[in-house]
Amino acid sequence: MSDHDELMQELEAIDAIYPDLLTIHTADSKIISIKVPQHENMIVQISFPANYPSANPPQVIEVRSNDTGSNDGGNGGNFCDFKYLQHLFQEVMDSCYTQNGSNSICLFDFLSELDGILYIEQEEHAGTDEPVQVPTDPFENWFASSPITDRGSTFMGFATRVNSEQEAFDRLEQLKTDSKIRKGNHAMCAWRIKQAADGSQKNDIIFQDSDDDGETAAGSRMLHLITIMDCWNVMVVVVRWFNGTHLGPDRFKHINCAAREAVVKAGF
């Protein structure tokens, strides 16, 4: 089946699953707009390369609000950085395309992931109005980022070198013994580990995974970050202390920044 035929079948399936959300702008169906399911106030414009899905992922060319006269994404001013959203959505698209493997369609997975990106934090996650107390002393084997605070939420990243999944789990439990860490609402993490099975790189055993810890889609974004940084034998954790103020997708900007700083400080 040709790339064009696969694209047409994919768009027909998307239109059947999400009726009235898809708009095709060109005769060859290479440029579309789609309202994000469950978040129909957000519209994503997408361009499909001529060699999609065989060789290249779709490109996110615009993210905008569907609300007349509004530039806040329809979320009461929680976020309005559409350039950042375009960058974030492209990361999600690239990740879905890569995870599906070569010659695989990815639009449905992309739209499913966006629900996690755009969801609004629930009030029951709210903490107290007391100032957040972040760890100040370095943990053994861990390297910490500077805390990032935005509208009452505080994010702090931690990174460590690990050589096995069991070591990663043990180090995570070690981190959680700190009383200030335990007061955090989320401790999202990701890890990538490469072990030589017989002393040669050809037969490397690879372990990589992530945990959102209640912050939907955060772990997979952190895993994508350390993947594009080409880091191995690393575990990165970002702790969020949350006082109930909604940040929308801006939270992923802070999670990635905290994670990146911790990984760099750890020497990866």
From TrEMBL:
Q: Read off the SMART domains from this record.
A: RWD
Keyword Membrane among UniProt keywords: no
Q: Which InterPro entries match?
A: Impact (IPR023582), Impact_N (IPR001498), Impact_N_sf (IPR036956), Ribosomal_Su5_D2-typ_SF (IPR020568), RWD_dom (IPR006575), UBQ-conjugating_enzyme/RWD (IPR016135)
UniProt entry keywords in alphabetical sequence = Cytoplasm, Repressor, Stress response, Translation regulation
Q: Which residues form the RWD domain?
A: 9-121
Cross-referenced Gene3D superfamilies: Impact, N-terminal domain (3.30.230.30), Ubiquitin Conjugating Enzyme (3.10.110.10)
Coiled-coil ranges from the UniProt annotation: none
Q: Tell me the protein family, please.
A: Belongs to the IMPACT family.
Give the main localization category.
cytoplasm
- What Pfam families is this protein classified in? Impact_N, RWD
Q: Which GO terms describe its cellular component?
A: cytoplasm
Q: Give the highest taxon in the source lineage.
A: Eukaryota
Q: Name one GO biological process term.
A: regulation of translational initiation
Q: Which residues form the signal peptide?
A: none
Q: What is this protein called?
A: RWD domain-containing protein
Does the keyword field hold Cytoplasm? yes
Q: Which organism is it from?
A: Zygotorulaspora mrakii
Where it sits in the cell: the answer is: Cytoplasm
